Amino acid sequence: MEKYLSLNITEAVAEVESCKADLALAQKHADRNWVSLAKAALRSAERELRDWQKGIVPPLAEDQLVMGAAAGR
């Protein structure tokens, strides 16, 4: 379980960084719609990262954990 959380935290950190880069690009191009979408994506990615860091597993991921445990992973 610890390894699973660690991998997902690493992935979530990368997603947050990607969203920050996208937001910076949107602001550079001064596209208000793009900026709005990029900010929403960044907030979502940051919320997901906080959840993973707290050990909160999203409902869909719980099913994958159960299936992985049953398969001996």
Task: Set out the fold topology.
Elements: H1 2-29, H2 32-54, H3 59-70
Helix pairs in contact: 1-2
Describe what you observe in this structure.
This protein has 73 residues and is mainly alpha-helical. It has a single domain, classed as Methane Monooxygenase Hydroxylase, Chain G, domain 1 (Up-down Bundle). The protein has 3 helices and no strands. The chain has helices at 2-29, 32-54, 59-70. Helix 1 packs antiparallel against helix 2 (32-54).
H/E topology pattern: HHH
Instruction: Report the mean per-residue pLDDT as an integer.
Output: 83
Number of folding domains?
1
Discrete helix count: 3
- How many strands, what sense, and barrel or not for the largest sheet? none
Q: Quote the CATH topology.
A: Methane Monooxygenase Hydroxylase, Chain G, domain 1
The CATH class name reads Mainly Alpha
Broad structural category: mainly alpha
Rg over CA atoms: 15 Å
Q: What is the 3D shape?
A: elongated
Strand coverage percent: under 5%
Catalogue the unreliable spans: none
CATH architecture field: Up-down Bundle
DSSP summary, beta strand count: 0
Percentage of residues assigned to helices: over 70%
Instruction: Report the end-to-end length measured between terminal Cα atoms.
Output: 10 Å
